[in-house]
Amino acid sequence: MTLIQNPCPWPNGARCAVAYTFDLDADSTIHLNTPDIAHTRVCASSMMRYGPTIAIPRLVKVMRRYELRQTFFVPGWCVEKYPRAIELLLENGHEIAHHGYLHEKPNILSEDEQLEALQRGVEAIVKATGARPLGYRAPSYAFSDHTLHQLVSEGFAYESSLLGDDVPYVVRSGNGELIELPVDYSMDDWNQYMCFKELGYMLPVASPKRAMELFRAEFDSAHRNGGMWITVWHPFVSGRLARCEAMIELIEYMMEKGDVWFATTAEIAAHARACMDDGSWTPRVDKLPYYDKPAA
Q1: Most buried residue among 126, 145, 209, 247 by CB atoms closer than 10 A?
Q2: Which domain does 127 fall in, by range?
Q3: What is the reported pTM?
Q4: Contact present, 182 and 162 (Cβ < 8 Å)
Q5: What CATH number is associated with residue 169?
Q6: Mean pLDDT taken over the chain
Q7: What does the pLDDT look like over 50-75, one tens digit per residue?
C-alpha cells in the first residue's frame, strides 16, 4: 500500500527522488530589511557571509565526495556579490536557480516591482552562468498571485516554493504552466537551527541529531511510498561543522538504503515533464491564483 495517490515513476525503478537544495541568501536580507544601517550590523553580516565564504567550499567538497550535483537557489545580488562561490558551484556541476534579487518578498511588492526583481535576478544569473535559470524559489516562500504568470512569461521550467503535495504537480495560469516541486516547512533547516535576536528569530536550537531524526523520518516515509524528498538548507546555517557532519551521515544513510535517485531540482522537473509527455504519468493540476479577491 502507498499513501500517495499518484506517485511519479522514478528513473531506474528508484523508490524516491532526493534533492538537497540550498538557499544561498548570504547577507542579502540585512541589506533588504535594514538598508540604512546594514553597514553597522557587523555581527549579523559575519554570520551570514559564512555561507558563501566558508560553507560553500565545504559543501562542494562534501557533494564531490559523494558524486552528487545539487541545486542552489541564489538571489541575484548574491550572485553579483560572491562570484567565487558561484564559480565554485558551477565548476562542480551544481545548478544555479533563481531566488529573487535582494531576497525581497514578492507578495508584499507591486506587480511591477515583482517583475523588476525577477528580471534583475535573471540578468545576474545569465551574466554569471551564460544561461537563463530554469528554476525559481520565492524568497521566504512568499509566492504571490502574480508570480506564476511572470515565471511563465520569463521562460522558467519549474518552481519550488509551494507546499501542496508530496510529489511533483502542475501549476497553471492563464498564460501557461510550470512543474511544481513542493517543499514543506518541516524540511527547512531554518526551523531547526535559527536563533539570532538581532534578526528577530529566537527559536530553540535543535541538536543536529534531533534535526536529522525529522529529516530521516520524512525520507523513510518518502522511500516507502514512492515520494519525493526535497529539503531546504541555508549554507550559513547548516554549513556549520556539526550540522554538516550530520548531513553527511544522512547522505550515507540514504545511499546505504538504496533505490534512491539523487538529482537536481531541474532534473526532477525535466523527468516529471518527460513522464507527462510519454503518457506514463499524469500529474495533479492546480490553477493559480486560487482566489482573485478577498473572501467576503
Answers
A1: 247
A2: 11-286
A3: 0.97
A4: yes
A5: 3.20.20.370
A6: 97
A7: 999 999 999 999 999 999 999 999 99
